[in-house]
Design goal:
The protein is mainly α. It is built from 17 helices and two strands. The chain has a two-stranded antiparallel ribbon.
Length: 409
């Protein structure tokens, strides 16, 4: 029973159904989603389960030599170390500069002065192009470092890389006064623990003091970061209940609105690969300003439109339900669920049998994408696809290029 409950597929299904049920209770006064929205959530969860069951029809086969796993791990490690050095230099420099402004202003004033808007150039970078370049580079690198830190802990029960990932994402959170990256790491760390075998728990029992300090240290980052004048119960209601359930209410709002793009057009898969399309759109628009990208246009609209839902107004929190439903209605939700369930569970079965690093990487990446998509659809964000491409390149290079300079024993 424990084995069933600790699979990434089961975790994902419980996560989505659980928060959907909480959204129906409206503990904080948000508009209650209709039964149609809840049915779509259930349909997505059921599709994931069907995809997982289909893996029973596929044999789990070894497709490269055992020695290749060691070569692959060296390449993942090389990238982790290289990205960490780059990030420490960039983030360390920015942290020193932002501290001068942060300690003399409130959080709201700091964000207003430090970062650029359409008609203002922020103090922190003094250049809109440089600021955009920072986010373009740092976001996927931080995500890669976080994912691989989790993978290394899952595979080797080693805190070192995960601690570096927390430190880097915490530093980025300090600079941007943002909590989402650290939150992702904490949630994913707990889920990786849930997926871990009994040996991992045996090791952790011997390191419970370090584990307690580790968790408390980084949980405090969330508490401090979210303390913006709210009382304790207000913080819990807003940052836990509202943030995890508002997506269902916003999606329901769009479903009921006949003028919403969700009911006016079908994007036929382009939102599901929206992050990848956005990546290429940025380059194409350097030469053709008229090039249209549904994903980028959708992202801009969602970030600007403030929708009043119950006691407050929100934007952006549209979840992956919007993405898949826009791509093909009910069929889009079913197809995406089956394919993702099939892919993630097949990689998990390979991981259980062979313990290859690349399979663990794919599992953690897809699981984090599904978990975080309860806020903003990670399929429409560039960093998800960039990290996936990096993983694919490492996978392919190990199979076809056996030796690289950093790969030699």
């Amino acid at each position: 029973m424990r084995k069933l409950l600790s699979t990434p597929l089961t975790i994902t299904i419980v996560w989505w159904i659980g928060w959907a049920i909480i959204s129906k209770c409206s503990f904080t006064g948000l508009d209650i989603p209709t039964d149609k929205t809840f049915f779509i959530v259930f349909l997505f969860a059921l599709s994931l389960a069907i995809g997982g069951l289909l893996t029973k029809l596929l044999p789990v086969q070894e497709n490269f030599e055992p020695k290749s796993n060691q070569q692959m791990e060296k390449r993942f490690n090389f990238l982790f170390n290289a990205f960490s050095v780059v990030l420490f230099v960039i983030l360390g420099t920015l942290a020193i500069k932002c501290s001068l402004l942060l300690f003399s202003h409130s959080g709201a004033d700091y964000k207003r002065l430090a970062f650029s808007t359409e008609d203002y150039t922020g103090f922190l970078f003094n250049s809109k192009k440089l600021e955009n370049l920072y986010f373009f580079i740092s976001s996927p690198l931080l995500y890669y470092v976080g994912i691989y830190g989790l993978v290394d802990f899952w595979k080797n029960t080693n805190f070192k890389k995960l601690a570096i990932a927390f430190a880097l994402n915490g530093l980025d959170g300090y600079i941007r006064l943002a909590r989402v990256n650290v939150y992702m790491l904490i949630i994913m760390f707990l889920l990786v623990l849930l997926m871990s075998n009994s040996y991992t728990f045996t090791i952790l029992k011997k390191k419970k003091k370090q584990l307690a300090i580790f968790l408390l240290s980084f949980l405090s980052i969330l508490v401090i970061g979210s303390f913006r004048g709210y009382k304790a119960n207000e913080q819990f209601n807003r940052f836990i209940i509202d943030y995890h359930t508002i997506g269902f209410s916003l999606f329901d709002y769009e479903l009921k609105n006949p003028n919403s793009p969700l009911n006016q057009t079908t994007t036929y898969g382009r939102l599901s690969i929206g992050g990848l399309e956005t990546f290429f759109t940025i380059f194409i628009r350097q030469f053709d300003k008229s090039y249209y990208s549904p994903a980028l246009s959708n992202s801009i609209r969602m970030s600007k439109d403030q929708i009043h839902i119950g006691h407050d107004s929100y934007n952006s929190f549209y979840t992956l339900l919007y993405t898949f439903y826009s791509d093909g209605g009910f069929f889009g939700v079913i197809l995406a669920g089956v394919l993702i369930g099939l892919y993630m569970h097949s990689k998990f079965k390979r991981w259980e049998k062979f313990h290859h690093t690349v399979d663990a990487f794919y599992v953690v990446l897809v699981l984090s994408t599904l978990i975080l998509s309860i806020f903003v659809s990670q399929f429409e964000i560039m960093r998800t696809w960039i990290v996936l491409i990096i993983c694919l390149l490492v996978d392919i290079s190990t199979k076809y290029f056996k030796t690289l300079p950093f790969n030699k024993s």
